[in-house]
Design a protein that fits this description.
Blueprint (H helix, E strand, L loop, with lengths): L6 H19 L4 E3 L2 E3 L3 H31 L5 H18 L6 H29 L3 H36 L8
Antiparallel strand pairs: 1-2
Helix pairs in contact: 1-2, 2-3, 2-5, 3-4, 4-5
């Protein structure tokens, strides 16, 4: 695994982290006590596409950690783990030159939302609230389904954006 990163790439990753933070904490699509839908995954998907699984994991974890003191939130380690795994999966699945909708978009959407959204995040919330896992999972299923659909919807746009950035020389494809 190649972990070298230039100052320019570090700045690009930092900008994606900042964008994910703003989308998560300040511009949610829907924010209810038990249902929160945001587009914070979009810059993290792009980070995984461009910089690979390690930087995807670091970026999504950093975006979550930034929210704790700034927003006055209580750290939930399993949710942090969920974000790190989700960022890793973005890079693992989407850091390819030729991305296809059927293979990569569907695999990405379902694996990240089942592993991270349904299992790890729900476990973290259940532990934090002292609530049983299964009823909480049933409450979270609509959110998970909506996030799968959103992930599938933004995939073609992100692939076009990534390809335009590569063509313009704004980034260099890193296969990690």
């Amino acid at each position: 695994m190649k972990l070298k990163v230039s100052v320019r790439e570090l700045c690009q990753i930092a900008m994606l982290i900042a964008l994910a933070f703003v989308l998560e904490r300040h511009l949610p699509i829907l924010s209810l006590p038990d249902l929160r839908i945001t587009l914070s995954f979009v810059p993290m998907m792009l980070c995984g596409m461009l910089f690979g699984p390690v930087w995807g994991a670091v970026a999504f974890g950093a975006a979550d950690i930034l929210g704790w003191p700034i927003m006055g939130l209580t750290p939930i380690p399993l949710i942090l783990l969920s974000r790190v795994v989700q960022g890793f999966l973005y890079g693992l699945i989407l850091n390819r030159e030729n991305l296809t909708f059927r293979t990569h978009a569907v695999t990405n959407a379902f694996s990240t939302q089942i592993i991270c959204g349904a299992v790890l995040t729900t476990l973290g919330l259940a532990h934090f609230r002292g609530a049983p896992f299964l009823p909480l999972l049933w409450m979270r299923l609509p959110q998970i389904a909506i996030l799968i659909v959103l992930s599938l919807a933004v995939f073609p746009v992100l692939v076009r954006l990534r390809n335009a950035m590569l063509k313009a020389g704004l980034v260099h494809h890193k296969r990690c």
